[in-house]
Design a protein that fits this description.
By secondary structure, the protein is of the alpha/beta class. The protein has three helices and nine strands. The strands form two sheets. The chain has a six-stranded mixed sheet, sandwiched between helices. The protein has a three-stranded antiparallel sheet with strand order 1-9-8. The protein binds inosinic acid (IMP).
Length: about 170
């Protein structure tokens, strides 16, 4: 069964250009320490950094509150930590989606405690219907309805990350 396209490649590209321009303007004269939240944000980060016309340092962290289910376990685990020291840096967390907000709440606090000069969040998607933990998103790609979405880095049980668009997951696909 074909995946229903929710956000097309074209729409995504246009929005990321806008976000890149906004970030470039707001961080003018600074170097940005980009922290990509693996695995889901890899594609968003790769496209976003090419639209940021400033020096960037890229680092990666793996933190998740999800297993192979479409419902949050409510617990955050840092599975792979940053390779660099972020003390004194302007950190921009790059996330695929803010769902309950738990991941970003815990991660932002963690990065702040490491002594970052500033911590901001760029999230590709935001599902307000499921928010449980207040989360400030500085740079948002798209606000979406309460669907479980796949593609453009987002998975269901490790699959569909490679799709170049955002689709709505339907169990019939498996
Ligand atoms: P939160 O901690 O509940 O905000 O969850 C954030 C994480 O849950 C994201 O980084 C995703 O990995 C995962 N997630 C939440 N909603 C979806 C979805 O619709 N599709 C795929 N992954 C999702």
């Amino acid at each position: 069964m074909a995946v229903e396209v929710y956000l097309s490649e074209e729409k995504i590209k246009t929005r990321i250009k806008e976000l890149g321009a906004q970030i470039t303007k707001e961080y003018a004269g600074e170097e940005i320490h980009i922290v990509c939240v693996l695995n889901g944000a890899f594609m968003f980060m790769a496209d976003l950094v090419r639209e940021i016309k400033l020096p960037v340092i890229l680092d990666f962290i793996s933190a998740s509150s999800y297993g192979d289910e479409t419902v949050s376990s409510g617990e955050l685990k840092i599975k792979m930590d940053l390779a660099s020291d972020v003390a004194g840096k302007h950190v921009l967390l790059v996330e695929d989606i803010v769902d309950t907000g738990l991941t970003m709440k815990v991660l932002r606090k963690n990065i702040e405690e490491r002594g970052a000069k500033s911590v901001k969040l760029a999230s590709f998607l935001f599902k307000p219907a499921r928010l449980e933990h207040e989360t400030h998103i500085d740079y948002l790609g798209f606000e979406i309805e309460d669907h479980f979405v796949i593609g453009y880095g987002l998975d269901f049980a490790g699959r569909y990350r490679e799709l170049p668009y955002i689709g709505i997951y339907s169990p019939d696909q498996d």
